[in-house]
Q: What sequence folds into this?
């Protein structure tokens, strides 16, 4: 097998831009600067210091986001449902270990996302994974990856 050399030239423009940020850790102000219509992937795993009112605006500022990781954040049902409505192209969602989510919030969000959802990570959400909250998965025809690790048996 041939060796593949990877350089900065091979990276997408957005990745080069993110690497050039002067901040070692993303801040609220740098996140606001990054949220735009061309953003397709956003990973905010364990970024607890980002205010929830900014998280709730992701769907308005970055409407085309396809991959969204909010793992470890204390997002509410209202925020998750709003994102499931406003992020029209969302196909990959990670809300692992989000302690504020309830079964109803997960159910409503999945009902909105079902037609386009390819990957879902609910790891560690034992309080919000129930038979009822997962019922919309029956309509997820594109679903390829589902993580229900450390969840109650639905």
A:
């Amino acid at each position: 097998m041939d060796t593949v050399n990877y350089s900065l030239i091979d990276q997408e423009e957005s990745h080069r831009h993110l690497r050039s940020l002067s901040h070692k850790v993303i801040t609220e102000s740098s996140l606001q600067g990054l949220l735009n219509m061309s953003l397709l992937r956003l990973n905010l795993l364990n970024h607890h210091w980002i205010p929830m009112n900014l998280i709730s605006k992701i769907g308005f500022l970055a409407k085309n986001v396809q991959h969204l990781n909010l793992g470890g954040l204390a997002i509410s049902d209202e925020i998750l449902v709003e994102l499931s409505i406003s992020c029209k192209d969302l196909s990959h969602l990670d809300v692992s270990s989000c302690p504020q989510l309830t079964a109803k919030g997960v159910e409503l969000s999945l009902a909105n996302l079902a037609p386009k959802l390819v990957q879902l990570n609910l790891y560690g959400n034992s309080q919000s994974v129930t038979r009822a909250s997962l019922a919309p998965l029956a309509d997820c025809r594109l679903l390829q990856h589902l993580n229900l690790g450390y969840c109650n048996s639905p």
